[in-house]
Amino acid sequence: MTRIGTSDLDVFPLALGGNVFGWTADRDASFAILDAFHAGGGNFIDTADSYSAWVPGHEGGESERIIGAWLADRKPRGVTVATKVSQHPQFGGLAAANVRAAAEASLERLGVESIDLYFAHFDDAETPLEETVAAFGELVSDGLVRYTAVSNYSAERIREWVRIARDLGVAEPVAVQPHYNLVHRETENDIIPVAADFGLGVVPYFSLAKGFLTGKYRSTDAEGAASPRAAGAAKYATPQGLQIIEVMERIGAAHGVSTAAIALAWLRAKPTVVAPIASASKLEQVPDLLAGATTDLTADEVAELDDVSEWTPADM
């Protein structure tokens, strides 16, 4: 187990992404995935109130409802649930009234008394940051939320959030959720230093680069891709990207694990990273994710992956 920032939340070093629940994984499949994750030691689940509002006929909150139903049915001990606010069609933005209404709606869907970790999903330029920070602080002081966090915020705005929280005397964020993986390392230049400065736990999303780092997608032919996921992964299948896969495969073979597990293990080895987020839409994908949480790379292996991934694809 590892601790999230300055909180007392001790979590498995992998967060199970809930974006697929109610979308590419129906209720039964989601329950099976959650059962397998928990049986393997997993206790950290990441979702958002907007999942999966992008699906025709959905309104948002589908993932939270499935997770809530699983929690009610299984009654697992020590599970940490993170969710987010700002993107739900009915609760857009981070105005104070909306933050509270969205949190109350998430609590109802999850069926819990308090949200363990509550992320501001995306920055809201239309709302003064002071208003948002105060609103998040009130959720903590009123017991609706245990800890606050930010996602997709710039380093400058994270610093400003912490300054305002200190000035107001309210809860400071304990975690940050950025886009970070072996083919998207810009986070190391700005977000990681801020996290280190303020003791924030980093919980990266797109840990597997939309599936590319599983090694399954090796063509840049996005138009010929069989699925939206394949199309998203295709842009990384450049000569440099495929070289990263080759090194991952060799290291994975040495540990007896998949490239996906190596991608997650590499992230876990990076400073301030607490738990990468990865999702599974099929039960058979869960063992690879669990292996990513328990495989420890040597310093030489981390260095080799660092060296081969020292590039940034254009327009990523």
Any overview of this molecule?
The protein contains 11 helices and 12 strands. With 316 residues, it is of the alpha/beta class. Strands 11-10-9-8-5-4-3-12 form an 8-stranded parallel sheet, covered by helices on one side. Strands 1-2 form a two-stranded antiparallel ribbon. A hairpin with a 6-residue loop joins strand 1 (2-3) and strand 2. The radius of gyration is 19 Å and the shape is globular. The two termini are 32 Å apart. The model has no long low-confidence stretch (mean pLDDT 94).
Name a few traits of the molecule.
316 residues; single chain; two-stranded antiparallel ribbon; TIM Barrel; 12 strands; alpha/beta
Please compute the radius of gyration using only Cα atoms: 19 Å
Task: Characterize the main sheet.
Answer: 8 strands, parallel
Shape descriptor reads globular
Q: Determine the mean pLDDT.
A: 94
Count of DSSP H/I helices: 11
Strand content: 5-15%
